[in-house]
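User: My collaborator and I are trying to settle a disagreement about how two of our proteins should look. Neither of us wants to argue from intuition anymore, so we agreed to look at predicted structures for both before our next call. Could you fold the first one, then the second, and keep them clearly separated?

Assistant: That sounds like a sensible way to settle it. I'll keep them separate. The first protein:
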Amino acid sequence: MKHIGIAGNIGAGKTSLCQALSKNFGWDVHFEDTTNNPYLNDFYYDMDRWSFNLQVYFLSSRFKQILEIQRGEKTVIQDRTIYEDAFIFAPNLHEMGLMSERDFENYQELFKIMMSTIRPPDLIIYLKASVPTLVNHISSRGRDYEGNMSLEYLKKLNQRYDHWIENFTESKVLVLPGDDLDFINNPEDLGKIINLVSTQSHGLF
């Protein structure tokens, strides 16, 4: 099956990149569910109470997307991967004391069961961005629930992203410098990304 995953921290530009690549290559897009997510707003105001609920919701949502992708015949680009839920966000909440040991173990067991039934993406595109770039993007989109997000939280997530992507071997990986490429406003930067993606995906499809 034809599956491309876009990975990156909060505010890295994943959704915008999904839209741009979808338009260029004619791929379908599966977006991250932030509009109808029943836990997201509560989570940012009380992370300790809602962390497990939020992470299980995201895990379930992305697992459903993957099943649909693998059963279908079209090439699909996915806004955030299931690996980020399990290797970055949930462990970070656990380390910060915002998810109990019991909940974290339950979550990890659920993830392992899910992963035994699906295949990894053909290609993962990682948008690597510094905290200042993330903050700038987050501020510009004006989501109220993201106003309480701390710089330390974003920094910890970035550290986990770098460690995860350096050790990930299940798919081909393309790392894009999010600080240097303004693919939203600069057609030349978008063209560079399209060429890189075309090179990486050659032979996959």
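The second protein, kept apart from the first:
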Amino acid sequence: MAHTRIRNFNTKDTYPEQNLDNDLCQAVVTRGGKTVYLRGQCPQNLDDAKNIDSHDPVEQTHKVMQNIRQLIEEAGGTMEHLVKVVVYITDVRYREAVYRTMGEYLKNVHPVSTGLVVQGLARPEWLVEIDGTAVIPE
């Protein structure tokens, strides 16, 4: 692993009443390298800013996480360099679906994570937005 992860855990243990399986941690320690701050990613294409044609939180989260992976790779890194995500959802009922989907991309990564339920995002059709920070070792 590229960074030191302190107090790794999985959400299936933290939230046993929910159907989640996310590898997270309480803190990430990095040393050196370059820091990549990602803009909040939404369910749209990076090349043309067109929204995907879906109002499903799972499909929107897949697109968001694919964008995050693509941007980290374009910066010269991999998903294991992701150290923090902030998840914004417009309805608490989307939480399990969004986190379950996000967890597919974060297996064995263990970033720190903050989740917020917000009144709305920049476009009314967006249900989820995720921003992130990665540190790519030298």
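Some points you might bring to the call about the second protein. The chain has a mean pLDDT of 94. The domain at 4-136 is CATH 3.30.1330.40 (60s Ribosomal Protein L30; Chain: A;).
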